Amino acid sequence: MRAGAATDIAWQTRPIWRRLGMSSGLAVLALAYLPIVWLMVMSFSARPLSGVPYPLTLEWYLRMAADTRWRAPMVSSIVIAVLVGIACALIGTFVGRGVMRLKRPGWVLGTALLPLFVPGLTIGAALFLFLRLDLGLRLGPWSVALGHVLWALPFALLLVVVMLTRFDRRLIDAARDLGASPYQVFWLVEWPLLRPAIIGAAMFGFFLSFSELPRSLFLRGTSTTMPIFQWAQASDHQSYVPISFALATIIVVVTIPLLAVFFFIAFRPAASRS
Amino acid sequence: MTDPDAAERVLEVANARHRYGDVIGLDDVSLSVRRGEFLTLLGQSGSGKTTLLRIIGGLETPTSIAALRIGDEDVRGVPAARRDCSTVFQGYALFPHMSVSENVEFGLRVRGVAPAERRRKAVSALSLVRLSGKEDRRIHQLSGGERQRVGLARALVTEPTILLLDEPLGALDERLRIDMQVELLALQKQLGMTFIYVTHSQEEAITMSDRIALMHRGRIVQLAPPEDLFEKPVNRFVADFMGVENLIDGVIASGLEEGGHVELDAGTARFRARWTGVEEPEIGSGATLVVRAERPVMLSGSAAVGLNSVPASLGSTIYKGAHVDQIVTTPVGPMTVRVLDRHAVPASLSAVQVPPDAACIVPNRGDHSS
Known about the structure:
- The complex is a heterodimer of chains A (274) and B (370).
- Chain A is mostly helical.
- Chain A has 2 domains: 18-57, no CATH class; 69-273, MetI-like fold.
- Chain A contains 12 helices and no strands.
- The termini of chain A are far apart.
- The relative contact order of chain A is 0.13.
- Chain B is elongated and about 80 Å long.
- Chain B is built from 8 helices and 21 strands.
- In chain B, helix 2 (100-109) crosses helix 3 (115-128) and helix 3 packs across helix 4 (144-156).
- Chain B is α+β, with helices and mostly antiparallel strands and 370 residues long.
- Chain B has 2 domains: 9-231, Rossmann fold, CATH 3.40.50.300; 244-363, no CATH class.
- Chain A binds chain B through residues 168, 170-171, 173-181, 184, 188-189, 192-193, 269-270, 272-274, and chain B through 57-59, 79-82, 86-87, 89, 91, 93-99, 102, 106-107, 109-111, 115, 154-155, 158.
C-alpha cells in the first residue's frame, strides 16, 4: 500500500505532467485573451478585415463618434444591465438567506438552478408566448430585463448560497443576544460577511445581461439592446464591422477597470470603525 | 431544595416545555435563581440544558411556558435583544470581520453609545479579562483562550443582570480550562453577577457551582448544591452521573425507619443506609446502594460478616497520585475503596463494611424528576 501510494505521487509529480498542465493552462488563457487583444489592435487598422494591422488609423473611432445609431441601444443595454444587477443582488440575497434556513434546501435550490440548462432561445420563445400572446402585454425593455433576471438569478443565488454555507449562524444569535435589531444584525454582521457574494451577484447580473442575445431577441418588442444592434449590423452591413471593432475595444477598456473597482470593494477587509 | 425567596430572585422559569417536531427538548422545567448565584445546568448532550439556556436568553421560543421573569420583568415574548442577559457562546461566535475592541463594543454600539465612551468601556472590560493591549488585534490572530476571553468581555460590557454561558470552556485544552474555571469564578464573585453555566462536565460543575441542576431527557432530575448531589442523590441516575464509584443494585427490604434509614437486599448481602429518594420507599421495589469510594471501611482478620458488611478480597490497586483506589472483589460485585496511600490497605483483607450513615439508598429508576 505504502509503495503504491508513493508510486502514485511520483506519477503525478513527473515533470511531463506538470509541463502539460502548465502549457494547456497557458494555451487556454492565450485563446481567451489573444483574440480580444487582436481585435483591439485591428480596430486601429485601416483595413480591419484584411487581418493586417497596418496602416494604422483612427478613422473608425472618428466614424463611431460621429455615428449616433449605436447610442440608444448602448444606453438601454446599460440601464437594463444595471437594473438586472441590482435585482439579482437583492433577490439572490433575500431568497438565498431564506432557502438556507430551510431544513432541506437541496430541492429548492435544484429547482431554482434547473432553468440554467434550458436553452436561451427556448426560454425566450416561451416567455414571448406567455407575455405577448397569452397575457397580451406590450414587450419592451422591461420584458428584456425580466428575461435577463430569470437568466442571471440562478448564478446570483448560487454565489450567495455558497457564501452562506460558510456563514456561522451563531453570529446572528450573538448579535441578537447583544441587543442588535434585525436591521442592525443585517447591516453590521450579515452584510459585511456576505458582501463579496452580494456584489458578485450584482456583477454577474450586470455582465450576463449586458451580453445577452437569444432571450432579448424574443422579448425586445420594438426596443434594441447593444448585442442585438451589433449582431444585426454585423450580419447585414459589412461596412459597419470596423466601427463595431472600435466599439468593442471601448467596452473592454471601460469594463476592466470597472471590474477591478468592483472586486476591490467586494473583497477589501471590512471597514474598521464606523 | 429551598427556592430563593421572591426578594432576591433574579430569574424564574415555570413549567417550560419545548418540542422540536416530535422530539421533546424540555419537559416541564421550573427553575428559580437568586441574585449573585452561580447555577450550573449539567447534563449530557440532548438533555435540554442548552435549550433551556437559549429560552432564557430569548434565542429560542418555548412551546409553552407558565412564567419567565428576569429581575422583575416578565420577558415572555420579549426579543433576545431587549432581555437583561447576555450569552457567552460555545465556540465563542466572535465577529470575524471586527477587531477585538469592535467585538467587545458591539453591544454598546447597537445601543447607540458614543464611540469614545464605548471604547473606554471596552478597554476596561478587556482589562477585566486580562486582555489589555490587544484591543486592535483581529480575531484570527488570537489563541483559543484569548478568544474565549473576548467572548466573555463582549458579554460583560453591557453589564447584564444575568450572564449565560454555554459550554464556554468546551474548546479549550485541559490545563487552560482549569485556569479559566478559577478565573471565571473569581470574576463572578468580583462582579456579583448571576451566572448560568451550561456544561456536560460534572467535574467543572462541582468546582464552580453554588447549585447544580442536573438535567436528563428534558427534565431537571435534581437541583441542589454540589455536595448534595453526592451525599443525597435522588436516584441512581444522579449518583451515576456524579461519578459515585460504588452502586450496588437490589430491592427494598424494609419500610422507612426512624431516622430515615431503609434496608436493601442485594442478594448475597443486606445494607442499611439513609433513604434519599423523594418518594417513600416501597418494599420490593428496585433500589441502589450508593457508596462513595472514600466511605467503605476495610476489615481484616475474622471480622463478623453481617448487615452492612460483605466478605471481600483484594483486587488491583490503582495509583491516582493524591490517593490510591483499591479494587476489592465482593459477592455483590467489585467495589472501589479509596485510601490515602497503599499502606492503609490491610494485607489480610476479609471484609468491607459500609457504615449506615456513610451511604444512601435511592430508587433504581433512571430519570424521574424530583
